[in-house]
Specification:
By secondary structure, the chain is mainly beta. It has seven helices and 36 strands. The strands form five sheets. Strands 6-5-4-3-2-1-13-12-11-10-9-8-7 form a 13-stranded antiparallel sheet, with helices on one face. A seven-stranded mixed sheet has the order 15-16-17-23-18-22-21. Strand 4 and strand 5 form a beta hairpin. It is globular, with a radius of gyration of 25 Å.
Length: about 525
Amino acid sequence: MAVATAQMPSPSPPPDVRAILQGRRAVLVRKRVVQPRTLELSGTRIGLNLYGTFHSWHDGDEDRYDQVLGVRLERIVRIGNREYIVNSTGNVRQLTGWLAQRQVTEDFINSDAFENQPQYSTALGRAQLDGRNVVQLRVAPPGGAVETVSLDAATLMIDRISFVDGDGLETDDFRDYRVVDRALIPFTEIDSDGEHRYDSAQRVVAVRVNKPISAKVFATPQNSTIRTNSPVTVPLEFHDGHYYAAVSIHGKTLRFLIDTGAQGVVIDSRAASQLTLVPQGLLEVRGARRVSAVGVAALDSVSIGGADLPLGEVSIIDLNPATPNDPAIDGVLGYPFFASAEVRLDFGALTMTFGKPGSLPTLGERLDVDTDRESAEVPVKIDGVPATCFVDTGNSNELLIFNPFVQTHPGLIAYAGTSPVSSYGVGGSMSAIAVTVNELDLGSYQLFNRSADVMQVDTGAFADRIDAGNIGLGVLRNFVATFDLANRAMYLQPSPAFDDGRTRPTAPPQGSQRSPGSPRSFQETWR
């Protein structure tokens, strides 16, 4: 019997890119808009239940953006093709990786090149954003990250820019366009990661166009360093796959996890209460999943082995559910420690030696490290496939592999004989599948038959879409590891217990529980 089938209308072809961008150029010409020689903006910023200000300067190929939100500070400085970000601690990181690629695309979109070089844009068609009609373009200039630009269908002004960040999409929305002295300025910007209670909004209050800007505004920032005259060695405590050191705050000795995977210095909410630290605002943490944390608090410094680590602010989180099998944890020494000091971890000797960046004798092979996202990320090969991984001393496993990487490389990971396992982190437990990776290449080192957990989550730190996975202590304990993140370097020297794994069994462990958990990634509102 014949069955009648409905004829679906053919989708209309996407609009022509050249026509769209020529139309946008015509609009700008009618508005008599030109790129300003210099531009200075200042105004207010609101987000995470905090209030603050921003101030930006632009002069040719030099830019600076200062932001204050409660006790949190950030500065972005660009001098020619060099761009630096300074955090609340005063740690300076020069962008070389994914954030640098994003900046290339942002510059392209915000300049005349966007309209004049349509070959780097692809039309995606028409869409609606919260009821607003837009035309969307995929923009990918040479050397830049891929971003989606949504143009208002009527005015052709930029309505939204969206891009991948961590486990999802970030969006920047622009409103209330005005022309001031022939410069086109959106007076309102709203930034979101999809969790709208963490959105932040920026409002322009003052504008100065083509006015002189002092060269001092664009001075190269200098990195904050740990306060010690010579290297210090302190003992480490090892328990259930994690390493801890004693930290002193206000004369009280506390137990801190050593964690290259955490973006900040963190204090457990119980310890913060004992120290009478007053939290402010909200904090979104990406661990096992996205969760809310207590907030941030002002703290000038902490002491480690008699050396003072300047801070400015700390994150306050309920940490103990992240390490259910460990004794109480008071805090986490994360990125600000490793960016302020050169740190050598000798896992066999249970010691940590640290001094000012570049102060320790070179030991082992240098690996270049990307610190764009306030973590140590290194190039690797997973069964021959080039990738980038976090180096995470807060992860007790050998290797975690994120699901987006597996989906991008179907057939790479063999699941025969695998079994489900449970993992723990900030935000609770996660499901994973235990597998064996035949070979992990880390620098010139070839490590075979690595036990790995393929994370079965699509949100949180372990669903990152940019990096392939997370290298943990199960791998790092084969080395004496030195982190000099201020100089974007990591050194690996094989330890006496080094084992490349050639003779290890290839079958993955069965039915075990893991503790990769560290508060590795915090949702940032800074742009």
